[in-house]
Amino acid sequence: MARTMAGTMARTMAVMAKGMKRVTLLGLAVCVLGPGMMRAQGSGAGSGAGLDAKALTLFKQPADSWPTYNGDYSGRRYSELAQINTKTVGDVKVAWKYKIEGVGSTRAMASPIIKSTPLMVNGVVYFTIPDHVYAVDARTGNPIWHFDWEDHGGHLLGQRGVGMYGNWIYFLTPDGWFLSLDSRTGKEHWRKKVADEKLQYFTTMSAMIVKNHVLIGVGGDAMDVRGYLEARDPETGEQQWRWWSEPLKMGDPGSETWPNQASMDHGGGMTWLPGTYDPALNLIYWGTGNTNPVFAGQGRKGANLYTDAIVALNPDTGKMAWYFQASPHDTHDWDNVETPVLFDAVIDGKPRKLLAQAARCGYFFVLDRTNGKYLVSKPFAHTANWSKGVDERGQPIPNVGKEPHVDGSMVDVPINGATNWPPPSYSPQTKLFYVNANEGYGVAYLYDTSPEPQGYGGGGSAAFDAHSALIALDVKDGSVRWRHDPKGEGAEGGGMSGGILTTAGGLLFTGDSTRVAAFDAGSGAILWSLPLGSRVSNGPSTWMLDGKQSVLVGAGDTLYSLTVGGK
């Protein structure tokens, strides 16, 4: 299935040879030389020095920035800022908003939806939608520059954001291009092809910077291709290493969980969300996606490592230290890419380095991040009856009777999963893990009954008794400490949406129907809310500039900056 070098070069030249187009930015006409090669102009406001590498830490990002997708390497999405707190949140108002203009419908969306978590560095906010990168002034919302890419395939349902290294911004296009942009101007620095859209790969994740590595993952399961994770050189874009989601050949560790070479070669396991990183252990933690064929598992008997797993890798070599499989032999399309959140806690009187994940399969896991051994493996959505319990490692044991059948098989987890990509949060203040969960029942069907199915091979029905809830989980035992159940259209909204942010001000920010809401992180009481007109569509973030704390949230095609008192 590999493409020849000549074919790659020909396609690359064909893309770069596309005709010129004109883009209007801040009232100025700018020239685009080929797709994405915009001579970006802007106001220059705040577009100063680049990102200091010291800003990327395990637990405490600087107060005046949000330098990476999750704010820091832990994935906790917890901020030490407390100017906005349980007493002042009632006075929070919109300071500014930025609405995307000039971008119409695409082959996937009727209008733009901001799913990216913006970075904020040196007073500039950087955010994305598919094919577009925007830089705006963090104090005013005024535009600085806008980068526009013309894709030639790929997935347009979402784009999670950019990564930053010094003065360089890293952006993945839907059709498998990895771009370096100048953060001050938006001008393209270089581009590298990292995935083949003709094989239905797509690239939507926010690049993650670890030391001198840019980590990028891929999505795509329509053509039964292998998943992989790459490290790229931040200066040149050249590949440093590639880790595959399946063993490369029979006889390699993990190959015993596959029946043959062909099943491994087409096994899936995409890597489309950013992971987390512990600098002291020098390990990155990454989730892998569903196994292929998606719903038809009869041609790939076994656990199918290392799909639907959390893997711990050395960021310098890509070598795996340990794995934990959340959904062995997945036949329900439950990607395990949800954030593996890192935190430290005292358990049974001993300090522990831990990792927690609320998985799409409906289980909540707490692991020792030094070795992958489990402390908690417990359903957080109904009983997760697709499994019969857990094995000696805490990994769920699939219930064969709940695999997809021709006449349907009902499980007590929605077909789209008990949660999905919107990021969770962990607060060291409350010692609780928070997730926007989906609850209900789903029916999975098997369409392709042949011995060697291909593609999806089946499908799922709409969920029955479907509803969402904001759940606070105790990391010591997985019990639910509190939950917020939306009450339908009206005072309590109509469903949880977006990601979660917790702060030292005792607050939790997330979306509840078409409003952003602030909850008391300890009790779950709603303290404040603001209608936005669209559902919260990204993970909220926060920082302090000029002595004022801002919370930034995306809803549909608009970013909102929220402060005490507003303007």
CATH-assigned fold name: Methanol Dehydrogenase, Chain A
Mean pLDDT, rounded to whole units? 90
Poorly predicted parts: 1-46
Number of strands: 39
Helix content: under 10%
Instruction: Report how far apart the termini are.
Output: 56 Å
- Given helix and strand content, the structural type is mainly beta
- Our estimate of the beta-strand percent is 35-45%
Query: In CATH, what is the class?
Result: Mainly Beta
Q: How big is the Rg?
A: 22 Å
Largest sheet: 6 strands, antiparallel
Features:
Methanol Dehydrogenase, Chain A; 39% strand; six-stranded antiparallel sheet; 2 helices; globular; disordered N terminus; 567 residues; five-stranded mixed sheet; mainly beta
Structural commentary:
The protein has 2 helices and 39 strands. It is an all-beta fold. The chain has a single domain (5-564), classed as Methanol Dehydrogenase, Chain A. Strands 27, 28, 29, 30, 31 and 32 form a 6-stranded antiparallel beta sheet that branches. A 5-stranded mixed beta sheet has the order 3-33-34-35-36, with no helix packed on it. A 4-stranded antiparallel beta sheet has the order 4-39-38-37, with no helix packed on it. The protein starts with a helix and ends with a strand. 55% of the residues are buried. Mean pLDDT is 90; it is low at 1-46.
Short description:
Helices cover 3% and strands 39% of the residues.
Topology:
Blueprint: H1 5-16, E1 21-25, E2 28-32, E3 78-79, E4 92-99, E5 119-121, E6 124-129, E7 132-137, E8 143-148, E9 163-165, E10 168-172, E11 177-182, E12 188-193, E13 208-210, E14 213-217, E15 228-232, E16 239-244, H2 261-265, E17 276-278, E18 283-287, E19 309-313, E20 320-325, E21 341-347, E22 350-358, E23 363-368, E24 374-379, E25 387-390, E26 396-398, E27 409-411, E28 425-427, E29 432-446, E30 458-460, E31 464-474, E32 480-484, E33 496-503, E34 507-512, E35 515-520, E36 526-531, E37 541-545, E38 548-555, E39 558-564
